Amino acid sequence: MNAFRQQKYPTDPQQRKILEEKMKHLVYKNSAIYYFNEAEADDLRLLIPYNLRQKIIMEFHNDAIQGAHLGQLKTLNKMKSRVFWPSMAVDIKEFIRSCEQCQKGKIQPGDNIPEPLAPIKVAEYPFDRLHIDIAGPLVKSNDDMKYCLVIIDAFSKFIVAVPMKNQTARTVATAFIEHVLCKHGSCNQVTTDCGRQFLSTIFQELSKIYHFSHRTTTPYHQSANGQVERQMRTIASMLRGSVSIGGEDWTELLPMVIFAYNTSIQTSTKQSPFFVMHGREARLPSDVALEIPAKLANPDVSTFVQDLVLNIQNSWRIVKENIQEAQEEQTMHADSGRQAAEKNFKIGQLVLHKINAHKAGEGHKFAPKWKGPFRIICIQRPNVMLKELAEEATPFKTHLNKIKLFHEAYVLPLRDIPTNIPDMVTTDAIDHEDDSNLEDNEENE
């Protein structure tokens, strides 16, 4: 400033030369210093001192009439014709990247990149692991049923479907006991969603009495229970083509539809669920009508049992191999189609969690899409344990697809004006996202 006002320069020649180089693109006017570089623009741009830079960015980015939280490129383009400081583009990028309102309110393209699939361990035998879900409320049937408990065996793909009048914990537990435990015996593991009936004391006591482990899926990310979710859609499709116009007879047709499913060859096992369970194929009404001869069993009981056991053991071995092959193929196709990529989160990092459902009255169009920040305390792919920053907060589990890195508030570094500053304000450092494209991404989630 003394050099401009009073023409006072350092006595040291080297220091004077450096100062003159810095002043080459600076203009003193109206008691202020401006930056001018005709190679960039014809405008004089006010040189902003360090203590005002963050405030200036906030004015152009946060203010509703000037920026309204638009992206990096739009903010830079609006600022670079008016103001200047060294490495301004870098500061704008980092400041906006760490803007808490933008992080919570926007879904960037990179936020939707999913984690690679993590295949579940293949079950060892029928009813080793079960997947359970509830369909409904459905059309009220002629016998007053409105819900359907669907159980699928992860090994054989055998389905058990039980109509229910309601979905209370007691009703669900009773149906599970009568139609699974009393007919097929206990299992090692049961996977359900986080419905209240499954988290109830009744179902937890049931798991203790019958000695099976109960696992729940991550809230709003039920891919671990995908087997039953997919087959529920299949059952609905089969019923849709069989029920009357009103659909009230669905409970009458349900056992038949389930039998049709259980006697059909499955893509992953390459066997029918009925065969894997019983060691023989079911005899269908068409077999009788067409007089297709039944496969004769050995009349000697002991020999029949030996043949049956051998048949079942061979079937189980083949099924396990086929399921493993199907998992590998499905994982490869799914990860390729979704462009999945492993996210490099680390314990201790701060992240935001996607809001799946807002509280009553908060879920308006302009509500934030992310909440937090939370700290990562444990990673068990594909899940992660998070904890709020408050000491008394309770950790919770979620899926890696539901979080994104939280950028803490950016502190602008103190930079000296370089001696060579042409073309300083470029968009090279900017993430070239377009806000209109971000809106399209949000609508297509």
From TrEMBL:
**Which residue numbers delimit the Integrase catalytic domain?**
122-281
Q: Which InterPro entries match?
A: Integrase_cat-core (IPR001584), Integrase_H2C2 (IPR041588), Retrovirus_Pol_polyprotein (IPR050951), RNaseH-like_sf (IPR012337), RNaseH_sf (IPR036397)
Among the Pfam families in the record, one is Integrase_H2C2
- The chain's coiled-coil residues are none
Sample GO molecular function, one term: RNA-directed DNA polymerase activity
Protein origin, superkingdom: Eukaryota
The kind of enzyme this is, by top-level EC class, is: transferase
GO biological process terms, alphabetically, are: DNA integration
* EC number(s) reported in the record: 2.7.7.49
Q: Which PANTHER family match?
A: PROTEIN CBG26694, PROTEIN NYNRIN-LIKE
* Name listed for the protein in its UniProt record: RNA-directed DNA polymerase
